[in-house]
C-alpha cells in the first residue's frame, strides 16, 4: 500500500483531495495532512510516507523549501506538486528537484481523478525497484565464461519468463529484479543457451539481451548490481528494438554524468524555441545530440521535457503555432526520440497552416522568447524588429496574425501573467514585483494589472491565497 501525505495550506483543498479521489483503486492510502512545509516535515519524522502531494505557495515553509529538505532527509520519497496556476518557473524548479508529476488544481475535475492517480501510480511503479530475489550463494565467485541478462524496458506490467529453456548440464537462472533475469551455462551448453535466449526476445516486450564478459572472479551479487546499474544508466539510452543484443564488458563503468549545469539546460531550451529544428535535419540532429550528451536520469529528463512543453504551450497553445502534447511516460531514450519526431511533425503541420514564411515564423518565436526571458527590459516592436532585421510595420502585422494579440497587448499580457506567479508564490512587495516585470512605476503597474484582471495586485494576492 502506497502511503500518501497531502500538504496544502487550504483545508478545503486537503479534505477535497483526500476524500474525492479513488485512492484505494490504485493501492494508495492517505495517512496524513499538513497545512505547511514545517508540519509536513514533522509528520514525515513520525511515520513512513511513500508519496507526498504538496502545494507550492504556503506560509511558514514553501513547497519548494519543503521539497529541498525532504529530498535530503527522505531520498526515496515520491513527490507530486499541487499548483493553483500553471506557474511555470516554480513547476520547473519542482521537477528539477525530483517531483515526478504536477497537478493543476484548476483542471482537477471529477472525471480526471482516475486518470491523474493512474498516471502517478504508473510513474511510481516505474521508479521503484522491487527487492531482488537472489539465491543464498550470491557471494560465490562466478566460474562461467559469460553471463546473459535479458532485460525488459517495459515497467508498466510484470513480465513472466515466457520460455522453458532446453538445458544442457549445469545451468543457472536468477531473477535480478522485476522484468530482468540473468543466466549462465557451462561452455559446452553456452551456444545453445544464447540462441534460445535470442529467439525469446520477441516474446518479451521492449527487451534487450546483454552478453556480459569479464565475469570471472566476481560474485553473483556484484554481477546483479552491475546489471541493475547498467540498466538504469547506459541501457536507457542504448536500447533499440532493431538491435536487441548488446555485448558489454564488466570492466567498463557505466554511470550517469554529473548534475546538469543551468547553462546546458538553457542551451537545449534555446535550441528548442529559437532554432528551426523541426524543419531542418542539421538543427534536429544537433538538438538530439545536446539532449543525449547530458545523459540525464529518467526523472530529470522528464522534468526537462515537462518544462519545455509547458513553456511552449504557455506561449503558443492559443496561437496559430499550435499546442504540443506531452509524452506521459517513457522507458527508454528511443521512445523519447520517437516523441520528438512526432512533435516536429506536428510543429511543421501547424507552421504550414500560416501564410508566412518559415523565416518570419521563427523570427516571431524568437521575439516572444526574448520578451519572456528578460521582462525587466522595456522591449518595443521597433527595437525588436530592427534586431530581427524586419520592417516595423511588417513585424507588427506578422506578430498580431501569429500570436493573436498586438505586440503591446502581448507585452502587457505576459508581464501581468508573470506578476501573478510572483504574487501567489512569493511574499515580495508589489514594487519589487513591478520592477521584475518591467514597470518602474508601481501605480502604473497596478493600473495595468487591474485593467487586465479586474483586481489590484494586493487584492489578487489575497484572493489567491
Automatic annotation (TrEMBL):
Keywords: Cytoplasm, DNA-binding, Phosphoprotein, Transcription, Transcription regulation, Two-component regulatory system
InterPro entries: CheY-like_superfamily (IPR011006), Homeodomain-like_sf (IPR009057), HptR (IPR051552), HTH_AraC (IPR018060), HTH_AraC-typ_CS (IPR018062), Sig_transdc_resp-reg_receiver (IPR001789), Tscrpt_reg_AraC-type_HTH (IPR020449)
4-aspartylphosphate: modified positions: 55
One MF term in the entry's GO annotations: DNA-binding transcription factor activity
GO biological process terms on file: phosphorelay signal transduction system
Ranges in coiled-coil conformation: none
Primary subcellular site in the record, as a coarse category: cytoplasm
Record's protein name: Response regulator
Provenance organism: Paenibacillus xylanilyticus
